[in-house]
Design brief:
By secondary structure, the protein is mainly beta. It has one domain. Strands 1, 2, 3, 4, 5, 6, 7, 8, 9, 10, 11, 12, 13 and 14 form a 14-stranded parallel β-sheet that branches. Pfam families: Bactofilin (PF04519). Belongs to the bactofilin family.
């Protein structure tokens, strides 16, 4: 995960907080760090970054952003339009789609289907 993407984090779900519902924005270059528990889908628009901290838990969901860093637990579908990083403390049960880079550290737990789907410009006239 590029360090400048982590510097873009400007919203946070705190460690003991529980958020139920959907969260989405089309504002460019926003960042969200999840240290608590989230139930529901998360969508961040172009340039968006999602960081799931070591104690973060995301359940029964779809998360989508350009850059996603997982240190905690995720159960659901992960759509990383550019980079996806799973640290050695990460646990992901669900399908993964990534567009540029997948980085899985030793010790990470991953169970599900993995698909590489690069961003491709539509042909003219389509």
């Amino acid at each position: 995960m590029p360090a400048e993407r982590l510097d873009a984090i400007n919203s946070r779900i705190a460690e003991d907080a529980v958020f139920d519902g959907s969260l989405s924005t089309t504002e460019p270059d926003l960042g969200l760090r999840i240290d608590g528990t989230l139930h529901g889908p998360v969508y961040l628009g172009m340039g968006g970054t999602i960081h799931i901290g070591p104690k973060g838990v995301v359940l029964d969901t779809v998360i989508e952003a350009d850059h996603i860093l997982i240190e905690g637990q995720v159960r659901g579908t992960v759509l990383a339009r550019q980079t996806l990083e799973l640290t050695g403390t990460a646990s992901l049960l669900g399908d993964v789609v990534y567009g540029t880079l997948l980085d899985v550290h030793a010790g990470a737990k991953l169970r599900g289907r993995i698909e590489y789907r690069p961003l491709v410009d539509e042909p003219e006239g389509a």
